[in-house]
Amino acid sequence: VLVRRARALDVDFDSGIDETASEVKITCSAARKLGDRLAVLAKDELYGFHTALEMPRGAYGVIEYVVRNTPTLDALIVELVRFSRLINAQTFTTFRDGRLEERIAGEPEALGKQGNEFSITHQTRIVRDASRTLVAPERAYFAHAQSGDDHELREYLGVREIVYGCGFNGVDLSKAALATPFVAADPALFKVLEQRAADIVAKLSTSDELENVRRAIAAELATGEPTAKHIASILGTSERTLHRRIASHASSFGELVDRLRHELALAHLRDASRSVADVAVLLGYSDGRAFARAFRRWTATTPVAWRASHRSE
User: What pLDDT is attached to residue 207?
Assistant: First the structure.
């Protein structure tokens, strides 16, 4: 959508992607760079924000119509958490104590300034359109660091405070806001659309029953050492049930965390823009030496040597 708007504005550039394809896969790093580049070319530091304001109704397909037909904002968030994979397969969404958080595992800046501001603005716009009221969060959060004048963004969101550089995108919502009714909601249509969304998510899912557990752990790694108790609370289950679920796959919580760190380490080291120290932090290691020891245990070599031997990938 960011590229499509640039074309409409007659911005001449090479996006580096197949713009005729119905589906495009792009890394978060490339998405951040593309967003920043478009903002410069369009001479608009709030390019993502302005793009969200111009989005046509229904641009997100079935998931958008599901949330538009929920009875309240609280119910909308339940569906957003449940079906977030239909928007971005890498996003892990949680809602606790009035705070909605959207994280991308191993990506503390998520989609970058333009992508992040687009996302929160578009979600706010859908809520206001469905409720026909100026619902405003108490506080907004962005994964990227603040840059430029955010007066227009702050004014549109109607927030008292915006917190930047926190590793996730999200909002704080009051109980009154969560109770906001959606005046045009159609209960019968909602049931049909909800089932359709559930079917699509089921097809996207792999046969691995631990997928949600893995995604939750990955999203929490950069904040430190994830615990089974904390991950269970995120998933809305008990710690005992979580351990039993993992054990049914002949594994333990610790082994699952270690295996996931190994997989993410290899993926992050292929990104030349990240230093080894950055990768260590993203995986929740207290220092580079701890990461190096773990990496040698996994691969019998060092992160630097492994990166050098896989530079062409």
Answer: 44
Of the candidates 7, 200, 5, 168, the residue with the CA atom closest to the CA atom of residue 95? 168
CA atoms within 13 A on the CB side of 257: 19
Residue 139 near residue 171, CB atoms below 8 Å:
yes
- Beginning with the edge strand found earlier in the chain, give each strand of the sheet holding 169-172 in spatial order: 91-96, 99-104, 169-172, 139-142, 161-164
Cα 66 to Cα 195: distance, rounded to the nearest angstrom: 9
List, for residues 182-221, the tens digit of each pLDDT value: 988 888 888 888 888 887 776 665 445 677 788 888 878 8
Taking the CA atoms of 138, 143, 145 and 150 in sequence, report the sign of the dihedral they define. negative
Residues in the chain: 313
Q: Are strands 139-142 and 99-104 parallel, antiparallel or unpaired?
A: unpaired
Question: Exposed/middle/buried for 184, CB within 10 Å: 0-12, 13-18, 19+?
Answer: exposed
What is the Cα–Cα distance from 63 to 78, expressed in whole angstroms? 12
**Which residue in this structure is represented by tokens 């969304």?**
197
State the CB neighbour count (10 A cutoff) for residue 23: 5
Q: CA-CA distance, 238 to 244, in Å (whole number)?
A: 10
User: pLDDT of 10-63, one tens digit each?
Assistant: 888 887 777 777 667 788 888 899 999 999 999 999 999 999 999 888 777 788
* Cα 1 to Cα 31: distance, rounded to the nearest angstrom: 12
pLDDT in tens, 48-85: 999 999 988 877 778 888 888 899 999 888 888 877 77
pTM of the model: 0.71
Best CA proximity match to 80, nearest among 120, 132, 23, 134: 120
- Tell me the C-alpha distance between 93 and 201, whole Å: 15
